[in-house]
Amino acid sequence: MLGSIAKLLELYPDAKVVIEPSSDPHNYNFLISGQWVTIKKDHLSNREKFLLSLVSQDNNNKSINNQWWNFLVHESDKIPAEKINVRVLQFEVQKLESDDRANEWLSVFEDTFDDVVDSFWINKYTGILIEKETNANMDKLEVQRMIELVDSDFYTKSHVYVGQFWPVNDKLPNIFDMERQLFHKSLEMKERVNNLSTVILDFLIEQNLKNTDMFKSLKGKIDIDSKTTQMINTLYKCDSNLAKTSKMLFLHRNTLLYRMEKFHEQTGFDLKDRDDLVLCFLLLK
């Protein structure tokens, strides 16, 4: 416990060095010099949590030799692939007993996806999987069902953050910076599998995302005309009640459902899902 960890324990006497991340929801975990440290959340401000996560991330970057990772964390300007859209799934897995077991877990996890571009461990407990966008990608619920089966087979406890699909270009590293923060935020939540829609409201309380590359890109991705705007606003005001919404819009219920399905196909956001609806409502502001 020399160097960085010793200095950290001087600043936070209540912090503890542990073998693996604490599962207590009241604790905050971060990795320093290959060692997990845990501290009570109420002993840290939001700014301190963020700074500690950056220290942890920087510490990990040094030992990873991967072109995708180097690009995503601003270590390299070389774009690994062009003319494709990808999403990054970030995961934390607890209770893996060895490196061989971790590699076996990752192999099974990777095999459940059809178009994996790359996957690798960042450290002993966390890793990422990069997936190409196709017509057959799993949604959050399907990922959740899959991870439950994997955890059942391996007796592990996993958290997954499912990123959005983005073009592979020079904006992606900045967007990934934001998704890293959202991933850390998702580890504090009850659900094991999260995405932008499930994390964003809690995160917005602490951060202002409106001027970030992520939100600008996301808003540009959605073609919102006056009819779509009216539909989203009315659905939100009617608390997702389709009968009430269709009545207020003077639409047949089937017409409303058709427009919602078309919007889902075009954007990937399901307006029948409350979290997706709230995210789209926020994007209109």
In short:
This protein is an alpha+beta fold.
Shape: globular
The CATH topology of the largest domain is Alpha-Beta Plaits
The CATH homologous superfamily name of the largest domain equals: Reverse transcriptase/Diguanylate cyclase domain
Whole-number total of structural domains:
3
Specify the CATH class of the largest domain.
Answer: Alpha Beta
Elements, N to C (H/E): HEEEHHEHEEHEEHEHHHHHH
Query: What's the alpha carbon Rg, rounded to whole Å?
Result: 20 Å
Largest sheet: 6 strands, mixed
If classified by CATH, what would the architecture of the largest domain be? 2-Layer Sandwich
Helical element count? Answer: 12
Description:
The protein has 285 residues and is α+β, with helices and mostly antiparallel strands. It is 48% helix and 17% strand. A hairpin with a 4-residue loop joins strand 5 (116-121) and strand 6. Helix 7 packs across helix 12 (274-283) and helix 9 (226-237) packs across helix 12 (274-283). 28% of the residues are buried.
